[in-house]
Amino acid sequence: MKTLIVYAHPEPRSLNGSLKDLAVSTLEGAGHQVRVSDLYAMDWKASADAADYGTAASRPLKVARDSGRAFDTGTLTPDVRAEQEKLLWADTVLFQFPLWWYTVPAILKGWVDRVFTHRFAYGVGEHSGTRYGDRFGEGTLAGRRALLSVTAGGPESHYAARGINGPMDDLLFPLHHGVLYHPGMDVLPPFVVYGADRMTAQDYSDAAEGWRQRLLTLGTTEPIAFRPQNHGDYEIPSLRLREGLEPAGRTGFGLHVRG
Amino acid sequence: MKTLIVYAHPEPRSLNGSLKDLAVSTLEGAGHQVRVSDLYAMDWKASADAADYGTAASRPLKVARDSGRAFDTGTLTPDVRAEQEKLLWADTVLFQFPLWWYTVPAILKGWVDRVFTHRFAYGVGEHSGTRYGDRFGEGTLAGRRALLSVTAGGPESHYAARGINGPMDDLLFPLHHGVLYHPGMDVLPPFVVYGADRMTAQDYSDAAEGWRQRLLTLGTTEPIAFRPQNHGDYEIPSLRLREGLEPAGRTGFGLHVRG
After folding, report:
1. What is the ipTM metric for this complex?
2. Would you call A11 and B165 a contact, using CB atoms and an 8 Å cutoff?
3. A11–B60: do the CB atoms touch at under 8 Å?
4. Looking at beta carbons, which residues of chain A come within 8 Å of B238?
5. What are phi and psi of A164, to 5 degrees?
6. Which of A113, B46, B60, B258 has its CA 20 to 30 A from that of B205?
7. How far is A245 from chain B (nearest CA, A)?
8. Hey, which residues does A4 pair with through a beta bridge?
C-alpha cells in the first residue's frame, strides 16, 4: 500500500500530531510506504491566485480555465505539481485535521483549492448527452481510497442525528462527496475523535487503539456507497436523482448514498 | 445601516468583484455606511498559527485556549483586531465569494479561523445545567444581520433538492448556522447566482437587479428561523433537539430550522 497523509495542525505536540505520527508508524510497521504532506511545516500557501498559474494566468484572471491551462501546459507552481504527483503515486490518501468551524482548517482548504485544479480534479472527460464529465465515481483519482481522520472539540451527542451541530456525516458530506468522490476516489467512513478538548490519558489510549484498527484494515473497509454520476441514477444534464431510487423518507445529502 | 462586506475573489474584474462593487454603490446610494474587507487586496493571512496569539501563545500551542487569552489580553495581531472591531461596528455583514469545492475559498475560511477567536465568537457566557454558553442565537454578535452572496459555476438543478451536489441550503448550513448564527447573528436567506461560468450579458443584468433588490430590503428581510440553543428546544448538555418539535419527516440540518 502507498499512503499519502495530508496533515493540517500547527502544533506537532497536539492530538492531531499524535494521530498522524501513529498512522506513519503503524503503516510503516505493517510494511507499507508512507509519504506525509505536513502543511504547516511546509508553510503551504493557502490562497489561490494568479501566481499559481504562471504564464497561463490570463488578464482578467479566470480561475477554472487558467488553472486547467496551467495544468495542461505544466506551468503550475512546483508546490502544486508535487502534491498532484503524490496523489497519483498513492493508492490511499488520509487526511488528518481538527474540525474548525465545522470543516477543514483554511490551510487544508487551500491545499484543495490549489491542488485540485481544472483538468486534474474537475473538468475531466467527455461532456455529452449521456455523460457530464468523468466525476463522482470516475476521474483522475479513480481507484484510490480516501479517509478523513477528524478531531472535534465537542461531545458526540452534539453531532448526532438530532444534535445541534447537525450530523457528522452531513457536515463531512461536502468533503467526502464534493471533494474526494468528485475526482473519483472511493471514500471510507471517517475516523472521528470527539471531545478532543478534554481527553484523559485513557481517552487517548482508546482513540489510538481505534485508529490503529482502522489503519490496519484500510484495504478491506467498505467505502461509503455514493452513487456514480454516469451510470443511470441521475438524469443528464440536470443531474437530478431519478425518483424512487432512495429508501422511503430519505432526503438531503443522504439521497446520494445507495441502499 | 452600517454594513461590512467581506469579499474574497482574486480578480477585481470578476463577477464577484462586480457584485461587491454593486453592493457598495447601492448601499451608499441609499445613504448607508459601508466598509469593505477585500481579503485578497489586504493579502489576508489565511492560516491560523502561534504567531496570531503573540505572548498568549503557549508551548505546546493550544489554539482555542491561547486565542481566547490573546483576545482577553488584547494581544491578538492588529489585522485580526481590526476585523473584530469592524464586526462590532457593523449592524449588517455581507459575504461575497465564489463557491469553491462547495464552500468558501481558503482565504475566507482563514478569515473565520483567525477572526472568530475563543472568547470573541465562541466560549462566551455561562456554562451551567441550563445554559451551554451564549451561542446559536446569542453571543458577541447578537443583534447583527448576516447574508451570504454566493456564485456557483454549475446550474441550479445540480443544487436542488435532488441535485447531485446536494441542496444549496444544506451546503451553506455549516456557514449559516455553524459560523454566523453561532456567535449570535441573524442570518438572512442567501443570494445565489448559478451558472456563473457561462453568463450572458442578460444573465448578468438579471442577477444584478436581483442583488439590488436584496440589498435594498436587507433591513426588512425575514431571517432563517434557526432554533436558539438555550430556550428549551434542546436538552442540555447533550444539545439534542427534543422529540416532536419538527414537522413530520424532517431530518438532518433542517431539524434546526423552526416551522
Report:
1. 0.98
2. no
3. yes
4. 155, 157-158, 163
5. -65, -30
6. A113
7. 11
8. A35, A93
